[in-house]
């Protein structure tokens, strides 16, 4: 397991120790200013090769702008971007053929069928020979579950189908990396599951995936790594499992003798509180076996004891504290 990445604030130089895992993308000191708006600032992002990295943040936190700079679609005001070892945006032509991207709706023609739209996209793929185009298009349609609707006009597609066609356009040729900006936005649960399956398949194939979302459950369900953005800066990043464990450790005990358990633990100076899920004992100063020993010795019947997870939700709430107090915009759909 690699360690949680630290914010170094350093530029891309020999002074930065080599990471344990090679990086598919990294940024240093990334900044983007639009007139008076600082959209992104001091972003040092590490995307390990083979990771599914969730870029998590409320609306307006800078996810799309960061993704656009990763892909060389927007020129940074300051800082550096490396994508698959190439300097962006200068070396876009070398890096981008290996990268599939779904960033905002690609320019699909409303009166053409999904398949005909993809044929047009495929014709612009430098890595696809013309005789390979029909096969690649049909395989991509199949991969996103659109084969049956392939000959219907794009205009009549549901939002989920449009989203899946966008994904198919990103997957026309095998990629080393796939970047998806809010891919499940507006999808129903079945559509969301489908996108998750596609991400899992890409991961199994060793493809690096960067996916942005303002939905915590989404990131928790699909990602190996996470970078949390708040007001344009990365406030935490690393392996999902490490970030989930970074809160106060606690043991959740299910017992019919809850009140006795609370009393006993307090008498033994072990932090404890009663929650709807059970008795929650603080493990900051006491190891779990000691908590169980104290309870059992006092005659408390223990039915189940599990390590309570901090949950990305708690982490996200702590990291972005104050943000929601400032307004409820983050409740709505992302733009
Ligand atoms: N082209 C632009 N011109 C001016 N301001 C912009 C532009 N693009 C983004 N911004 C501003 O930069 C900030 C970050 O926006 P960005 O779209 O990157 O955030 P986001 O996290 O992707 O949000 P969302 O989930 O709403 O898409 C916002 O304040 C936004 O209004």
Automatic annotation (TrEMBL):
One Pfam entry name: ABC_tran
Domain ABC transporter: 25-256
InterPro entries: AAA+_ATPase, ABC_transporter-like_ATP-bd, ABC_transporter-like_CS, P-loop_NTPase
GO molecular function: ATP binding; ATP hydrolysis activity
UniProt cross-references to PROSITE patterns, sorted A to Z: ABC_TRANSPORTER_1, ABC_TRANSPORTER_2
SMART domains from the UniProt entry: AAA
Keywords from the UniProt entry: ATP-binding, Nucleotide-binding, Transport
Family to which this protein belongs: Belongs to the ABC transporter superfamily.
The protein's name: ABC transporter ATP-binding protein
């Amino acid at each position: 397991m690699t360690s949680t990445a630290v914010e170094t604030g350093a530029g891309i130089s020999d002074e930065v120790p080599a990471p344990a895992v090679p990086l598919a993308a990294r940024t240093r000191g990334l900044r983007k200013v639009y007139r008076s708006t600082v959209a992104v600032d001091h972003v040092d992002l590490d995307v390990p090769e083979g990771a599914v990295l969730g870029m998590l943040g409320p609306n307006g936190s800078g996810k799309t702008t960061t993704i656009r700079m990763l892909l060389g679609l927007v020129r940074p005001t300051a800082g550096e971007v490396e994508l698959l070892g190439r300097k962006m945006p200068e070396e876009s032509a070398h890096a981008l053929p290996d990268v599939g991207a779904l960033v905002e709706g690609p320019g699909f023609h409303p009166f053409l069928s999904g398949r005909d739209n993809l044929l047009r996209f495929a014709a612009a793929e430098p890595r696809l020979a013309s005789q390979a185009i029909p096969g690649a298009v049909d395989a991509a349609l199949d991969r996103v579950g659109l084969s049956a609707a392939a000959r219907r006009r794009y205009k009549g597609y549901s939002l989920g189908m449009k989203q899946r066609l966008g994904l198919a356009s990103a997957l026309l040729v095998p990629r080393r990396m796939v970047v998806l900006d809010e891919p499940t936005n507006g999808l129903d649960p079945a559509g969301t599951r489908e996108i998750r399956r596609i991400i899992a398949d890409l991961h199994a194939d060793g493809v690096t995936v960067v996916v942005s979302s303002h939905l915590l459950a989404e990131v928790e369900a699909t990602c190996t790594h996470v970078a949390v953005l708040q007001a344009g800066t990365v406030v935490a990043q690393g392996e999902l499992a490490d970030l989930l464990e970074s809160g106060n450790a606690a043991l959740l005990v299910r017992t019919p003798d809850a009140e006795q358990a609370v009393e006993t633990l307090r008498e033994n100076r072990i932090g404890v509180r009663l929650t709807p899920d059970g008795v929650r004992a603080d493990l900051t100063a006491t190891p779990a076996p000691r908590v169980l020993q104290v309870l059992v010795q006092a005659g408390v019947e223990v039915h189940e004891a599990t390590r309570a997870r901090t949950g990305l939700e708690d982490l996200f709430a702590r990291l972005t504290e104050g943000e929601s107090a400032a307004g409820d915009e983050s409740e709505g759909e992302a733009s």
